[in-house]
């Protein structure tokens, strides 16, 4: 076991506790998303794991050693663990290459140079080696910080919303290179995100937090197909939710239906098209089924009359 959190209690303020008896186990080499809506506790949990905050009770064991918070450990951080937080913490008067090489030994300078270039290539910044961080955008600085964290080959890498400042096309490239690199080097990764869709193909596991509670911990397919509740289902984008009563009346097998799961079909129930809009890979439609509005994705534009099946 690489990381174990047992019976953890933590609150930022006495009035409101965040984690109450929180438990989690993380195996070596896994790529894990820490998901949940803004404010559910993702950053706080990463800071606790990294030892930047003191838990009130319970323990965090990393690589068989307890993590001590700032009260007991004046210089927080572990050799084998790195956190890339949302403030990138770069050295302002050192170049991008010097920042990335900060933790790499100077014994063999040629080797160091090669390693820095390899890491800059992973994050797509190989052309920026000799530039000072202040000339980079927020997203580029974030990538320098990721490259620096990778340089120590940590056993566990914690990334707090690493793609938050990066535009779509860059994100796609970075995502593939980063996830491949950590798998190749057997680095375990916990990545916080409120956009699971963006990282889903690369995940071994999704941990879902809701107001500090761990409500689901499964692989991506299981989480998507059997979301614990409406909150989990909604993390994957638009979803149609049926009450127990509606489920029984319509004879449905489940309560949550993603828009692409609802089909136009001759042997379905009569429904009315309210809107049908082009959305790139599909048409986005709002249809009414017995007065209940549903979102349905179809390959082409749809017009009345229609029948839908669930
Ligand atoms: N330093 C702090 N003092 C008091 N409350 C805090 C502090 N930091 C966070 N909180 C509160 O703790 C809760 C969890 O915050 P946290 O930043 O961990 O959430 P998050 O899931 O990472 O959110 P986001 O996705 O927006 O980054 C929130 O209600 C937040 O307001």
UniProtKB/TrEMBL annotation:
Pfam families to which the protein is assigned, alphabetical: ABC_tran
Residues of the ABC transporter domain: 3-236
PANTHER family in the record: SPERMIDINE/PUTRESCINE IMPORT ATP-BINDING PROTEIN POTA, SPERMIDINE_PUTRESCINE IMPORT ATP-BINDING PROTEIN POTA
Record GO terms (molecular function): ATP binding; ATP hydrolysis activity
Protein name in the entry: ABC transporter
InterPro entries xref list: AAA+_ATPase, ABC_SmlMolc_Importer, ABC_transporter-like_ATP-bd, ABC_transporter-like_CS, P-loop_NTPase
PROSITE patterns for this protein: ABC_TRANSPORTER_1 (PS00211), ABC_TRANSPORTER_2 (PS50893)
SUPFAM superfamilies: P-loop containing nucleoside triphosphate hydrolases
UniProt superkingdom: Bacteria
Keywords on record: ATP-binding, Nucleotide-binding, Transport
Lineage of the organism: Bacteria, Pseudomonadati, Bacteroidota, Flavobacteriia, Flavobacteriales
């Amino acid at each position: 076991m690489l990381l174990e959190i047992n019976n953890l209690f933590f609150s930022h303020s006495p009035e409101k506790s965040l984690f109450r008896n929180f438990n989690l186990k993380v195996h070596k080499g896994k790529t894990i998303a820490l998901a949940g809506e803004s404010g559910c506790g993702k950053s706080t949990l990463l800071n606790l794991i990294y030892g930047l905050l003191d838990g009130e009770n319970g323990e965090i064991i990393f690589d068989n050693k307890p993590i001590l918070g700032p009260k007991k450990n004046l210089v927080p951080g572990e050799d084998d663990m790195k956190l890339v937080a949302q403030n990138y913490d770069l050295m302002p008067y050192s170049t991008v290459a010097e920042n990335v090489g900060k933790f790499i030994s100077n014994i063999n300078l040629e080797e160091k140079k090669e390693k820095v270039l390899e890491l800059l290539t992973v994050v797509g910044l190989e052309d920026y080696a000799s530039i000072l961080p202040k000339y980079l955008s927020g997203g580029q600085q974030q990538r320098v910080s990721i490259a620096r964290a990778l340089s120590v080959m940590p056993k566990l890498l914690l990334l707090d919303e690493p793609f938050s400042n990066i535009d779509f096309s860059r994100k796609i490239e970075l995502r593939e290179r980063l996830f491949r690199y950590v798998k190749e080097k057997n680095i375990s990764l916990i990545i916080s995100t409120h956009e699971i869709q963006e990282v889903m193909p690369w995940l071994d596991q999704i941990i879902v937090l809701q107001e500090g509670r761990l409500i689901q911990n499964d692989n991506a397919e299981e989480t998507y197909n059997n979301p614990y509740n409406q909150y989990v289902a909604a993390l994957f984008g638009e979803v149609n939710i049926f009450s127990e009563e509606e489920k029984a009346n319509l004879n449905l097998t489940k309560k949550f239906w993603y828009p692409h799961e609802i089909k136009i079909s001759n042997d379905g129930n009569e429904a009315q098209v309210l809107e049908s809009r082009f959305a790139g890979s599909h048409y986005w439609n709002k249809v009414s089924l017995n007065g209940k509005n549903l979102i349905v994705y179809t390959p082409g534009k749809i017009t009345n009359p229609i029948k839908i099946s669930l």
